[in-house]
User: Which sequence fits this backbone?
């Protein structure tokens, strides 16, 4: 493991890249040591011929190691809400072609309707999915938060929860459940807000914005706590590569990259505010055992850390306030940014990014609901008894795509 070393009066202070493991060891001497033990009057280790290793107690370590429990709670909450969504969905009651019929009430919607193995869009709408029309015209702004706890299917849930465990537990062990919990929830809100300002049609669910917020927090934490890291450039390049790859995936169709970008930017700014650490000079003082005097450190934090803290807090307040005002006034940012739609989908010869509203002709006899796409002439019959307008629009979009 890479370490940062400092020699002081014959004492070597090693600060490992995993903060919290601070060991103070004597520097090996080139002279031959006498096997004779020193007397008890030898107070300092560098005067003791029989050098010993001094390890700081937990109370002396500058950074506390936290137990992770909010991330497991978040995972449990997401899984529980998915089961509740499936219970409310009750596919056998509304359709005759459910997937996994042996699951009974918890069986999935037909794969043609939901390939992710999950509930219908109308069920997700009932559970609190993000729908801009309801946020703007029915004053249901709470959907900006509720949607981050819902998932469209088993595959969607599994991918997000594995990512949350992989990213979140390490961060929570270092910074505690309160700060990481705030980064997760606020970043999810930021992702939902930016998504609602650019994507006006359909519904949106998922924790992707919150997860990108954790990635943004990791990046800003590395930048603002730069002095206490070893191998910092390698860590920075690795983290940037991971973020770029994940954002690049967002340019595929049917992926809400605006939620990813909004969550990432929110987490990046929150990291400068909530995940700040004392600089290395201050850490060095705390790591020294009694009897050794480290060079004085005037302040716990460097000037650039204070500047980043203030600027980030101002940008967060301004961004969330102006974003909410614009959303509640029904502003569509696509009308003010002609190229921004490329951030969420880049058209190629393999796929189209046409997000225009699809139009279908519908008819229903009993539980048989028939849709015909007016643009391509495709027709399909669904076994449905309870269907909402948003559900019809989703089925129409799938049929016309």
Assistant:
């Amino acid at each position: 493991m890479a370490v940062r070393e400092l020699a002081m009066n014959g004492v070597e202070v090693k600060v490992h890249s995993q903060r919290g493991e601070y060991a103070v060891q004597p520097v090996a001497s080139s002279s031959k040591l006498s096997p004779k033990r020193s007397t008890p009057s030898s107070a300092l280790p560098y005067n003791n011929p029989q050098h010993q290793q001094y390890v700081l107690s937990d109370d002396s370590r500058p950074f506390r190691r936290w137990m992770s429990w909010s991330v497991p709670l978040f995972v449990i909450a997401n899984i529980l809400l998915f089961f509740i969504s499936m219970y409310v969905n009750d596919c056998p009651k509304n359709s005759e072609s459910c997937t996994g019929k042996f699951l009974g009430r918890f069986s999935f919607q037909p794969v043609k309707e939901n390939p992710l193995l999950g509930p219908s869009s109308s069920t997700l709408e009932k559970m609190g999915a993000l729908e801009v029309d309801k946020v703007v015209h029915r004053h249901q702004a709470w959907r900006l938060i509720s949607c981050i706890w819902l998932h469209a299917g088993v595959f969607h849930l599994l991918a997000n929860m594995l990512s949350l465990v992989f990213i979140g537990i390490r961060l929570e062990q270092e910074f505690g459940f309160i700060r990481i919990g705030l980064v997760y929830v606020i970043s999810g809100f930021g992702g939902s807000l930016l998504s609602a300002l650019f994507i006006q049609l359909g519904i949106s669910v998922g924790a992707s914005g919150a997860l990108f917020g954790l990635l943004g927090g990791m990046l800003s934490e590395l930048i603002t706590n730069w002095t206490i890291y070893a191998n910092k450039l390698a860590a920075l390049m690795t983290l940037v590569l991971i973020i770029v790859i994940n954002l690049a995936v967002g340019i595929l169709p049917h992926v809400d990259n605006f939620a990813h970008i909004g969550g990432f930017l929110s987490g990046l700014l929150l990291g400068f505010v909530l995940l700040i650490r004392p600089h290395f000079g201050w850490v060095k003082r705390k790591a020294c055992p009694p009897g050794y005097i480290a060079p004085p450190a005037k302040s716990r934090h460097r000037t650039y850390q204070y500047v980043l803290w203030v600027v980030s807090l101002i940008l967060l307040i301004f961004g969330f306030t102006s974003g909410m005002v614009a959303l509640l006034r029904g502003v569509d940012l696509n009308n003010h940014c002609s190229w921004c739609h490329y951030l969420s989908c880049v058209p190629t010869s393999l796929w189209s990014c046409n997000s225009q509203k699809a139009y279908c002709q519908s008819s229903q006899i009993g539980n048989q609901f028939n849709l015909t796409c007016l643009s391509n002439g495709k027709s399909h019959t669904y076994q449905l008894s309870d269907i909402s307008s948003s559900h019809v629009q989703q089925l129409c979009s799938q049929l016309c795509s």
